Amino acid sequence: MRIKHVRLAAAAVGVAVAVGTGVAVASSGDQDTPITGDALAKASAVAVAHTGGGTVTGTEIGDEESLYEVEVTLPDGNQVDVQLDQNFTVVGTKTDGPGTDDGDGVPDNDGN
Hints:
Strand order of the largest sheet: 1-2-3-4
Largest sheet: 4 strands, antiparallel
Number of domains: 2
Number of strands: 4
Strand content: 15-25%
Helix content: 25-40%
CATH class of the largest domain: Alpha Beta
Shape: globular
Distance between the termini: 51 Å
Number of helices: 2
Structural class: alpha+beta
């Protein structure tokens, strides 16, 4: 009987560790990895040139649509997400309204 309790406790600990690890992996997947170094300089230059001006206000590696994503805020306040491939070629763009980071209508820093 004692062996059953030990096995049951060990199984419960194993499940708790597995669930905790899964939560940690899921949580860490929500973090954007910024572009750095030479890639940042090149991606920023291409994105700003593509939009005709503006300021780089965010970057991300491994975005769902492309290898690189550069967010450019235009002088009128609109934001353009410029998608770049591994050769820094523009493969897509998405324009968000002024002061929004993802088109959800909620101001930047909303966690989305």
